[in-house]
Design a protein that fits this description.
With 246 residues, the chain is an alpha+beta fold. The chain folds into two domains: 142 residues, Sandwich (Jelly Rolls); 81 residues, Winged helix-like DNA-binding domain superfamily/Winged helix DNA-binding domain (Arc Repressor Mutant, subunit A). It has ten helices and twelve strands. Strands 3-10-5-8 form a four-stranded antiparallel β-sheet. A four-stranded antiparallel β-sheet has the order 4-9-6-7.
Length: 246
């Protein structure tokens, strides 16, 4: 384990050697650090590593939650099916972010679904173990309160953005949101995530055809350049202005 004892146990998936316990602990250090030695021993026995292929479902809307999930590598979308079969992407996740636990704490089933944007590795921990640790450790309980509060704040802000802004403002906001969430590639301009036009539309609360048309307009205005699914931001300040004025 980290800090005191380093366990040499490694975790396997479908016969392949996986992350060592020390590596997992290094990823989830925010969750690990508040625990005492006994609590760390308990938690270390509960790690499970899952791998997901690109576009593979992680959980479905209506399922009963049972595990906390920590995204160790890859990218994940949290979404919900809406009217007419259209999906709305609620959140996008990057390493290391925690998810799939709110519904358990709320005493209900999942009201969203989750899928991998790209090949992803996730550490899962039973929620009954998490609940036991939260009951024993006030600092860990405060960690989850902060996580939930931050997620609620993001959700509130995006609700206003996606319902009150016009199409151009929504798409500009989504491009800035993706840049802030996933960063840029080495050229310091290309978004470090390659979304389909449908996913970008679902993130921006618009139809795919509107997303395609607005992207083309942004490209014509030299705000961005497009190469397949790659989007390069050419004028971030103008995008921010469009996002702000809606």
């Amino acid at each position: 384990m980290l800090n005191n004892t380093i366990y040499k146990q490694s975790y396997t998936y479908m016969g392949k050697k996986e992350l060592s316990e020390a590596e997992i602990v290094g990823c989830i250090s925010e969750l690990w650090q508040p625990l005492n030695e006994e609590q760390r021993n308990l938690l270390s026995k509960q790690f499970t590593i899952q791998h997901y292929k690109k576009n593979e479902m992680i959980y479905f809307e209506g399922e009963t939650p049972s595990h906390l999930m920590a995204l160790l590598s890859g990218k994940v979308k949290i979404f919900r099916d809406g009217v007419g079969g259209r999906s709305q992407i609620i959140r996008v996740l990057k390493p290391v972010e925690y998810f799939a636990y709110r519904a358990y704490f709320g005493g209900g089933n999942f009201v969203t679904a989750a899928a991998a944007f790209e090949p992803s590795t996730i550490c899962t921990i039973p929620m009954d173990t998490i609940t036991q640790l939260v009951n024993e450790n006030n600092e860990l309980a405060m960690f989850f309160i902060k996580q939930l509060s931050k997620d609620l704040g993001i959700a509130d802000e995006r609700t206003v953005n996606l319902t009150q802004k016009h199409i151009r403002g929504r798409l500009a906001e989504s491009l800035i949101f993706l840049k802030d969430s996933y960063g840029l590639e080495e050229d310091e301009a290309t978004l470090s995530i390659y979304l389909s036009r449908e996913d970008l539309a679902n993130l921006s609360n618009m139809t795919t055809s509107n997303a395609i048309r607005t992207l083309s307009n942004f490209a014509s205005e030299k705000l961005i350049s497009i190469d397949g699914r790659k989007i390069k931001i050419l004028d971030e300040e103008r995008l921010k202005k469009i996002s702000k004025i809606g």
